[in-house]
Specification:
alpha/beta, Aldehyde Dehydrogenase, Chain A, domain 1, Aldehyde Dehydrogenase, Chain A, domain 2, 2 domains, 7-stranded mixed sheet, 6-stranded mixed sheet, 22 strands, globular
Length: 490
């Protein structure tokens, strides 16, 4: 029976380095706030380069013993970690909602989703295969074996504070790597709780280390990892500008990188689509976490023949969404993460209206609920001249673009520097084949708005990054291939 903790017991306010809970070496701290109310939840260490170096020291010391465990032994520890996460999904869901703002049902759902990666990679740990290379010369045998790459630095965003760090830590540990991690400054508490449960499950001291840092301290802290040759891999989810910075600054030590970066996802509705299904799929894809996900549709293209009908159906459903704090059990949309997010959403809506958009639903802040709330919004008559066409809104705003034919829709969908997710709805099998091949994205939803699965490879193309998370491919970025050539066998 896995141990169950209450919410208070899960909240940690220190770094975890080398198996010990510790403060920042300079004693600095910063506040973590509840986006629904603005109140301070707790203060955590504001770590710098010295703390990052201490975490690397611990991970480097722990690496030989961890990598030498049998894969099934590492897998058994990960299975215990998964069981602890699931046993504490209620408290973890509450913690996610407190610091991130998403409704409680979504917080619990994220916990189960994050745990699925831990369970998946617990099994994948025992399936790291190499190859016997067919003999090329007499007296020689050749093999390719896969080995853990070494110390991994994981840097994660605020929108999925449990799932994003779980799907980075789990494959790293499964592969035999040790980890140093830094969660987003807005949502560090869930990550700290997750690491606490990993330690409870038997992850040994030093194999998993985590530090917290404010925006101001993040650059020197992460910079230490970028410069340290012992850190052999960086895995990052976040904005494209930061991803490019990490790629540049890690070049001196030629680290391996996995970068899951920004998106600008198109959602195409053809005139032969099942419109009710398309509306339902768009709601699922767009309004999860209030539109604050990297795979949320940002541009919705609707064919002219069904444009008005689709807009009417969608706006009716969107207008009925319940906006409220996570403490309200009926909440479907919570607060945005902070004031900067709200300001960006409002700027995009104002710009769209200035360029001729029409409001079909929402379109305004909701100050009666708090400073970080924005009404779920549908805008008609969107055009390429609007800011929201090229810049990800990251909020509950659906702009509807009109198109005439398939070629126009594909051209518009691909007219972006990003290529993470794309969606389209059609019942024409030949069109489905054509469009799925033509879309420039790492992930394509065909008559489906919910794409995430631990069994599927998640990642993008173009400026949405490289590398894949989840699936049987998810271990590859944590492994290096060694070629063994043995001679003198005749």
């Amino acid at each position: 029976m896995s141990k169950v903790f209450d919410l208070k017991s899960l909240i940690r306010s220190q770094n975890f380095i080398g198996g010990e809970w510790t403060d920042a070496q300079d004693g600095a701290r910063f506040a973590v706030t509840n986006p629904a109310t603005g109140e301070t939840l707790v203060e955590v260490p504001d770590s710098g380069a010295a703390d990052a170096r201490a975490a690397t020291d611990a991970a480097a010391r722990a690496l030989p013993a961890w990598r030498n465990l049998l894969p099934k032994e590492r897998g058994a520890i990960l299975h215990r970690w998964n069981a602890l996460i699931l046993a504490n999904q209620d408290a973890l869901g509450q913690l996610i909602s407190l610091e991130q703002g998403k409704p409680l049902a979504e917080g619990r759902g994220e916990t189960v989703y994050g745990a699925s990666y831990v369970a998946w990679f617990a099994d994948e740990a025992t399936r790291i295969y190499g190859d016997i290379i067919p003999q090329q010369q007499r007296g020689k045998r050749m093999m390719a074996v896969k080995e853990p790459i070494g110390v991994v630095a994981a840097i994660t965003p605020w929108n999925f504070p449990l799932a994003m760090i779980a799907r980075k830590i789990a494959p790293a540990l499964a592969a035999g790597c040790t980890v140093v991690a830094k969660p987003a400054e807005d949502t560090p508490l869930t990550a700290l709780a997750l690491v606490m449960l990993a330690h409870e499950a038997g992850v040994p001291a030093g194999a998993l280390n985590i530090i917290t840092a404010s925006r101001e301290k993040t650059v020197p802290a992460v910079g230490d990892w970028l410069a340290d040759g012992r850190v052999r891999k960086i895995t990052f989810t976040g904005s494209t500008p930061v991803g490019k910075y990490l790629a540049r600054e890690s070049a001196a030590t030629l680290k391996k990188l996995s970068l899951e970066l920004g998106g600008n996802a198109p959602f195409i509705v053809f005139d032969d689509a099942d419109l009710d299904a398309a509306v339902t799929g768009l709601l699922a894809a767009k309004f999860r976490n209030g539109g604050q996900t990297c795979v949320c549709p940002n541009r919705v293209y609707v064919q002219a023949g069904v444009y008005e009908q689709f807009g009417k159906l969608l706006s009716e459903r969107v207008s009925a969404l319940k906006v409220a704090p996570a403490t309200d059990p009926a909440a479907q949309i919570g607060p945005m993460i902070n004031a900067r997010a709200i300001d960006k959403i409002a700027r995009h809506v104002d710009d769209a209206l200035a360029h001729g958009a029409r409001v079909l639903a929402g379109g305004k802040r909701l100050p009666e609920l708090g400073v970080n709330y924005f009404a779920p919004t549908v805008l008609a008559d969107a055009t390429s001249a609007m800011e929201l066409n090229q810049e990800e809104t990251f909020g509950p705003v659906v702009p509807l673009f009109r198109f005439v034919d398939e070629a126009e829709a594909i051209q518009a969908a691909n007219d972006t520097a990003f290529g993470l997710a794309s969606y389209f709805y059609s019942q024409d099998l030949r069109r489905i084949d054509r469009v799925s091949r033509a879309l420039e994205a790492g992930i394509v939803g065909i008559n489906e708005g919910a794409l995430a699965s631990e069994a599927a490879p998640f990642g993008g193309v173009k400026e949405s990054g490289y590398g894949r998370e989840g699936s049987k491919y998810g271990l590859d970025d944590y492994l290096s291939i060694k070629y063994l050539c043995q001679g003198g066998l005749d």
